[in-house]
Amino acid sequence: MNNRPPRKDDGVRINHDIKASEVRVVDEDGEMKGVMSVADAVELAEEAGLDLVEVSPNAKPPVCKILDYGKYKYEQQKKAAEARKKQKTVDVKEVKIRPGIEEHDYQVKMRNARKFLDNGDKVKVTMRFRGREMAHQDIGFDLLKRMIEELADISKVDLHPKMEGRQIIMVLSAESQK
Asked: What is the mean pLDDT of the chain?
């Protein structure tokens, strides 16, 4: 069991690969065995039929535990998978509008934006201008200000409305998110 070479991909040192001269040893039952040389600690682990695993390499002296390395690695993988499962990725959803949008269409876009924000996603609002609409950018800015006011209860502005070429872009995010 303790003859197997350590895997280098996880960065955990076991048995004779532990570089420190002295280590603080905790046995398989969680009892403190004290500070001893690595050779003595490895011998203690071999007597128990287990491995000496460096669990806290930055401590002075490093803390090592006597345990089954395979089981330890399996537990670490399970913890990592559980942490990944609980993470929420924030997507950026886009709502495209035009300066001459009708009231009903505007309400549909607002409903979608509200739904995205409720789900914790960010909302990128893009307003594209065509042709002579460029002469009336104030209409576009007024429309985006109206959106900000109507969504103020659940959102905050990450990127204030700004002109980029022929479009105005604005980014909103859910209020609870920082």
From this structure: 84
